[in-house]
Design goal:
The protein is an alpha+beta fold. 23% of the residues lie in helices and 40% in strands.
Length: 124
């Protein structure tokens, strides 16, 4: 348990099926992988047609969070122990997703270093 957790990134959001007005929606989220100071959270959006009772996985998302101490410094995250078949499946690829995220962050940093922070009307 920590006082504060911040979003480090929304790694991916995949919309698989539309959600309509006649659907109810359930969002299930849980930690699927942990690094030293970050945790990956998986979100599964399940839609259910209220008339036919048909259920679909409408969307999936992976997000990364960092836990902070009282001084807003990242703290070490305990390792997780996946239990269900689904948790084990997602955990298995967690390290690979973490590596890809590091590469993406490096690429983003290169882009940011080249961007201008002046307002468009201030450019000459």
């Amino acid at each position: 348990r920590v006082k504060e957790c911040v979003t480090a990134s929304t790694d991916s959001v995949e919309f698989l099926y539309p959600i309509t007005q006649s659907d109810s929606v359930c969002i299930e989220s849980y930690v699927v992988y942990t690094g030293e100071k970050s945790m990956e959270v998986f979100c599964k959006v399940i839609s259910e047609d209220m008339i036919t009772a048909e259920r679909k996985i409408a969307a999936l998302a992976f997000l990364t969070f960092v836990a902070l101490d009282e001084n807003k410094k990242p703290i070490k995250i305990p390792k997780i122990s996946p239990q269900s078949k689904e948790e084990k499946l997602l955990f298995m690829d967690g390290e690979e997703r973490a590596k890809m995220l590091k590469i993406k962050r490096s690429q983003t940093k290169n882009i940011i270093d080249s961007l201008d922070i002046n307002k468009p009307w201030e450019l000459e």
